[in-house]
Amino acid sequence: MRTSRVLLCFTVVVSACISECKYHPNWSSIDSRPLPAWYDEAKVGVFMHWGVFSVPSFGETAWLWAFWQRDHVKPYVDYMTKNYRPGFTYADFAPEFKAEFFNPDEWAEILEASGAKYFVITTKHHEGFTLWPSKVSFNWNAMQVGPKRDLIGELATAIRKKTSLHFGLYHSLFAWFDPLYVTDKSNNFKTQLYPPAKAWPELYELVNNYKPEILWSDGDAGPDWYWNSTQFLAWLYNESPVKDYVVTNDRWGNNGIMCHHGGYYTCADRYNPGKLQNHKWENAMTLDRVAWGYRRTVKLSDLMAMEELIYQIASTVSCGGNILVNVGPTAWGTIVPIFEQKLRQMGEWLKVNGEAIYSTKPWSHQNDTVTKHVWYTSKKTGNGTAVYAIVLKWPTTNILTLGAPIPTSGTVVTMLGYAGSFGFKGIGQQGITIRIPVIPFYEMPCQWGWVFKLEGLKNAASKVGF
């Protein structure tokens, strides 16, 4: 009876909206919704994967349960056999997910210092454990076991009070071992027991209770018609409390939806195509190359160096994307120092060079035509359009040659974070050579990724916008 009532309510809400609402429950209508401008302007976000999987924190942490008991992957089976008693279940990890040192104000300060403009936190991964007291999670949630706290509510309050970041929520549509989902899957999704009993109520709770500005859907397990994705999105865009500003991604079904329908495209984990895209996209990537969640065995060599992170930021934004930088908190509720350091270093770089990242548009060129390791962005200013050359490798001589820009007599060349302008010379009909003076190391504006601002170019016009 409970499932029937939820399904009835969902159907009534959608049906009442069909004739009078702007967006209808089909992909053609859903895809016609303009992307809220704030998201494209933000460019940089921070992602966090946190849950019961943070307790074992082994291997590809968030997938340990599936690799251990569904797929029987040997390293995971061996790890569990060697370190835990016979009969130990995944649920036995939950009481150890205590988050006893979790301080949302401290997290908020680190996030603000990172230079990110938005934040996304896992509310429920594929294990099914919710970080908020969901009414349909029984006792498999952070209020009933483990922390005994509404972790999502506390984070929402701290971030909105302490920072200027947009607050986003990740939600896995499915749960590996939920009996209702397992039944639907075994029936080739011809039955629909799980969505009205679990997925839909969870999504409504998250939207109505925490009012996220991003809803990051995941769990490409089941076709979009099984999840009733377009019906939910029609409600989200027409009637929800976040309808005017919420942003969603493309993970709403495994039948060709991802990278084709929804809000912005994610296409794949760690997606960075390296060339200009004709639709807004996001590079969701990890500082730990191995895992999304915290790993106790992580090595320094497993972590992305700052030079690599700056490359990811520059190449992603140059090609029209946003970047979502993931770190994994610990089961006791802290962000380990090496992740904190990298987030703060990212913020230091953005403090100097954010002008070339935030609110920019792709230029006519993404890479330079002569010098490698140069990525371009552009932005309209009071003096026309500025072009930013993000140079990832410092020149070995005092000359920087760029083949893409076409200078004029009114061109001005500066470097973000450094006082004064630079001399230059045009190269025939196309190209520019910039003369770099001897700069003491203590006057260099940053350690990685130096940005030359070019104003007054003949070919300054931006390529595309979203």
UniProtKB/TrEMBL annotation:
InterPro entries: FUC_metazoa-typ, Fucosidase_C, GH, Glyco_hydro_29, Glyco_hydro_29_N, Glyco_hydro_b. It comes from the Eukaryota. Alpha-L-fucosidase is responsible for hydrolyzing the alpha-1,6-linked fucose joined to the reducing-end N-acetylglucosamine of the carbohydrate moieties of glycoproteins. The keyword Glycoprotein applies. SMART domains: Alpha_L_fucos. It holds the Pfam family Fucosidase_C. GO terms for molecular function: alpha-L-fucosidase activity. Homotetramer. Belongs to the glycosyl hydrolase 29 family. SUPFAM superfamilies: (Trans)glycosidases. Residues 366-455 form the Alpha-L-fucosidase C-terminal domain. It is an enzyme of class 3 (hydrolase). The gene is LOC106178903. This is alpha-L-fucosidase. One of its GO terms (cellular component) is lysosome. Keywords: Glycoprotein, Glycosidase, Hydrolase, Signal. PROSITE patterns: PROKAR_LIPOPROTEIN (PS51257). It catalyses: a neolactoside IV(2)-alpha-Fuc-nLc4Cer(d18:0) + H2O = a neolactoside nLc4Cer(d18:0) + L-fucose; a neolactoside IV(2)-alpha-Fuc-nLc4Cer(d18:1(4E)) + H2O = a neolactoside nLc4Cer(d18:1(4E)) + L-fucose. Residues 18-355 form the Glycoside hydrolase family 29 N-terminal domain.
